[in-house]
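To illustrate the input format used throughout this study, we show a single complete record. The first block contains the structure-token representation of the backbone; no residue identities are included at this stage. The design step must infer an amino acid for every position from geometry alone.
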């Protein structure tokens, strides 16, 4: 009979992996927000940092939990790859709590610099270190598009026949960097519901509930958009790309 520690291990792995992802990603976002010298390279540096954050998060957690560290990935794996639905809610909860904990760590490191940002009316500018914000429909299109690219790449990279499987964490990190640079400023795209919602809950305690009502209650966009895009990306790979590849391999073997 498995021990409680064995049962809890995948959830702790998702918690820790997502926390590391958030600490690194939000850390560079906070640094860009509080620095006066990085504006011209903000998009590139943030995208590279988030890609590196994903790489490290997956390396830490993949051998224990599969290294999802993203609810959109967990849901798509549950739909298309027999990831147990009994674990899905636990994974998503662990990812969200890990992201919240990561936001707290970032705040501890940048609290003074964030507090020094000038605040007049409305949402405190420091809150943008923790949440995404955009026009609702433009943001939704960005989230769906970037998540579609990202999850499609994850499925291709982690396929048993993929030549990149041995370097999967690094390749997946580069896929996120590419998707982020392609569609939007990193401040406006999450590609991960936990990465936005966990820090947004933390930011609500520090900067007020305006983080939920900002930009016409934008908070739902990074929750829904990545799931839609992720499921579409998984569907395209599993039902179109992979099946056609398997058919071609069968033809080649029979030739």
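Output of the design step:
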């Amino acid at each position: 009979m498995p021990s409680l520690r064995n049962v809890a291990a995948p959830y702790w792995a998702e918690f820790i992996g997502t926390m590391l992802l958030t600490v690194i990603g939000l850390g560079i976002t906070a640094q860009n927000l509080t620095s006066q010298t990085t504006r011209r390279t903000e998009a590139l540096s943030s995208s590279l940092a988030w890609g590196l954050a994903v790489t490290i998060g997956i390396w830490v957690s993949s051998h224990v939990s599969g290294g999802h560290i993203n609810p959109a990935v967990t849901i798509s794996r549950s739909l298309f790859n027999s990831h147990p639905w009994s674990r899905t809610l636990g994974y998503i909860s662990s990812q969200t709590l890990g992201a919240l904990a990561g936001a707290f760590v970032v705040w501890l490191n940048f609290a003074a610099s964030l507090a020094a940002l000038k605040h007049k009316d409305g949402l405190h500018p420091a809150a943008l270190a923790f949440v995404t914000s955009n026009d609702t429909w433009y943001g939704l299109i960005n989230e769906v598009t970037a998540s579609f690219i990202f999850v499609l790449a994850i499925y291709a990279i982690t396929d048993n026949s993929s030549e990149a499987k041995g370097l999967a964490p690094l390749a997946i990190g580069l896929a996120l960097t590419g998707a982020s640079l392609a569609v939007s400023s990193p401040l406006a795209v999450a590609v991960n519901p936990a990465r936005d919602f966990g820090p947004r809950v933390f930011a609500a305690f520090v900067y007020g509930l305006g983080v939920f009502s900002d930009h016409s209650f934008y908070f739902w966009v990074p929750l829904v958009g990545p799931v839609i895009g992720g499921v579409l990306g998984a569907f395209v790979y599993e039902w179109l790309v992979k099946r056609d590849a398997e058919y071609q391999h069968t033809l080649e073997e029979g030739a």
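Structural context for interpreting the output: DSSP finds nine helices and no strands in the chain. The radius of gyration is 19 Å.
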